[in-house]
Description:
This protein is α+β, with helices and mostly antiparallel strands. It has one domain (about 10-215). The chain has eight helices and nine strands. The strands form three sheets. The chain has a five-stranded mixed beta sheet, with helices on both faces. A hairpin with a 2-residue loop joins strand 5 (about 120-125) and strand 6. The longest helix is centred in the N-terminal third of the chain and has 30 residues, at about 25-55.
Amino acid sequence: xxATIPVLPHGIHLLLTSGFQLSExxxxxxxxxxxxxxxxxxxxxxxxxxxxxxxxxxxxxxxSKAKKAQQFFEENFVIKDPNAEGGKRYYQGKILIRTRxxxxxxxxxxxxxxxxxxxxxxxxxxxxxNPSAIxxxxxxTGAEAELMENDLGQIDLVIRFKDTKAILGLIExxxxxxxxxxxxxxxxxxxxxxxxxxxxxxxxSAQLVLxxxxx
Length: 215
C-alpha cells in the first residue's frame, strides 16, 4: 500500500500532526482542528502527487531527461491495443482516496491520462509530453466525493482509510503490506482491484526512478 500513497517528507508530517493534541474537554476546538488536518492533508497529498509525476513526465531540456520521461510514460501509461487507433491507448484509471471519518473531510481524486488528446503538445523542438494531461488531482468535499463514488463509471477504485492518522501512520510503517492494513481495519478497498495493482505498480515505478536520482 505504501507504494500507492506518496510518502510525505518527515517535516510535513510533523507540521500536519503537531498542535492537534488538544484537550478532549474542548470538543468544538478539537473538531475544528481535525477538520483543518484533513483539508491540509488532502491538499498536501494532491500537490505532492502532481509535483512528483509532473517531474517524472517532464522531458526537460536535455536528451537524457527526455528519454527517462518517455520511458517512464511508456512503461506505465501506454497500453498496446490492436483495436485502438494507432494500436495503443492510455491508462485512464480514476482513484479516490478518502477516510471513513466524515469530520476529516479528506477526499482526493487522482485521474491518470484524463485528457488523452492533450498528452502531447507541440513545441518548436517537436511534440513533448504534457504532464498536466497525464496526472490530474482534485481535492473534493465530502458531498462531492459521495456523489462521485455512488455514480458508476466515475471512479474505478476507492481507497478508504480509517482516518487521517491512519494515512500519516504509513510514514512510520513504510513496509506495512496492504493485507496487514486490512486486518487492522485501517483501510477498506472497493471497486476494480485490477486498478489497485496498476496504481501500486505505477507508484513503485515512480519510487524506483526517484531513488535512482538520489544515488
